[in-house]
Amino acid sequence: MKVIQTSGKRKRATARAVLREGKGKIKVNSQSIDIISPKLLRQKLREPLILAGNAINNVDIDVHVSGGGISSQADASRLAIARALVSYDKKLQTTFLNYDRHLLVADIRRKEKAKPNRHGQARAKRQKSYR
User: Fold this and answer.
1) What are the chain's domains?
2) Could you tell me which residues are beta bridge partners of residue 3?
């Protein structure tokens, strides 16, 4: 029995996917992918599954995601699912890369840290008055 563990990150969100042989059940944080809302994020999570085609019919995927907002969590989960499917079936790599590079390559942009004495903003400059 083949068990594959992968991870994906987006902003502050981190997702861990575990792929096992099974009957095609996909769960995100212990709930079925079919009841995730809003619908746009559900479609985003389904993209790697649709591209994989029949390869997902004999595997179960459990995703645990935490941190960040709902959109970042969806992107991190999507990345983890796609990476797990590529580990399971190497032929899917070119399909995913041709469709969207961010299915396999993480977006490394992060929030810029706040600087000291700048009132919390990362880039705000202190106002000067010369009169």
Assistant:
1) 3-103 (3.30.230.10)
2) 20
Q: Name residue 93's amino acid.
A: Q
Q: pLDDT tens-digit profile of 20-79?
A: 999 999 999 999 999 998 999 999 999 999 999 888 899 999 999 999 999 999 999 999
Q: pTM value? A: 0.88
CA 55, CA 85: separation in Å to the nearest integer?
8
Task: Report yes or no: 83 and 90 within 8 Å, Cβ to Cβ.
Answer: no
Choose among 131, 13, 1, 129: nearest CA to 64: 13
Q: How many CA atoms lie within 13 A of 63 on its CB side?
A: 31
